[in-house]
Amino acid sequence: MKKRRIDLSKFSSIKIGPVTDLIVLEKGDKPPCEHTLIGCASNILFAPDLPALMMLGKDFDYIQKRGGELIVGAATPTGKLLSFCKRHDLGGFEYLTGLPGTVGGMVAMNAGIGSYETFDNLIEIVTDKGVFAKRKIPHDYRFAKLPGIVFEAVFKVESGFDTTLAASFSAMRKKQPKEPSAGSIFKNPPGDYAGRLIEATGLKGFRAGDMAWSGLHANFLVNLGNGTFKDALALIEKAHSRVIDHFGIELELEIKIIKNEG
Prior knowledge:
Blueprint: E1 2-7, H1 8-11, E2 19-25, E3 36-37, E4 44-46, E5 53-56, E6 63-66, E7 69-73, H2 78-87, E8 90-91, H3 103-108, E9 112-113, E10 116-117, E11 122-127, E12 130-133, E13 139-140, E14 143-144, E15 150-156, E16 158-159, H4 163-174, E17 181-184, H5 194-200, E18 207-208, E19 211-213, E20 220-223, H6 229-247, E21 256-258
Parallel strand pairs: 2-5, 3-5, 4-21
Antiparallel strand pairs: 1-2, 6-7, 7-15, 8-16, 9-10, 11-12, 11-15, 13-14, 17-20, 18-19, 19-20
């Protein structure tokens, strides 16, 4: 079992976090207890004080085609999976266009855009606890209750990559902020949009230090240079409370906040 020192202020997509040591799991390693798994940290906000962390290594970065199925390692980048599908003219993963992350992260949050979600094509997952069919995994919009650490996911695929559909997803994501962020902070509540609600409370563009609610999309918290965990958390809490006060709606986090609870 290898160790790695990582600067989370450079590694995470929102560019916030301390330098820390973590464990890198490869095939044959037993996941240590009380360690929090991170992927490529595209939807994570790290506190200065963290629990013990671990990540999957290169042994879990692979794609294999088996008939009408794809067997994909959980550390495989989403961009690599999309490129594989383009190259082999396979449909069903066009929604990954412009979506950062790893396949394990995709499954963990049932990632997607619009009506397209990861669990649409999922058949089963392999975890440290065994093999689990999709029907055995509780899941919903941007949520999955996973039985253990995902090592591998098996998806159904169909022939024919839809370039028009991929282009439409690319156009949608080009409208998102370019500054460092962790993507959408809150899940959209039923029948509404978190960004609309935050904007309606007057927080679009609102800034604390070098963190701000984007002036382009109010549900994106962006780092304007030297943003801190403290300022990011303050803005998240302010938006959460204001939306409750204005609309009586309690927004649910889409990102993961990792901090030491001890």
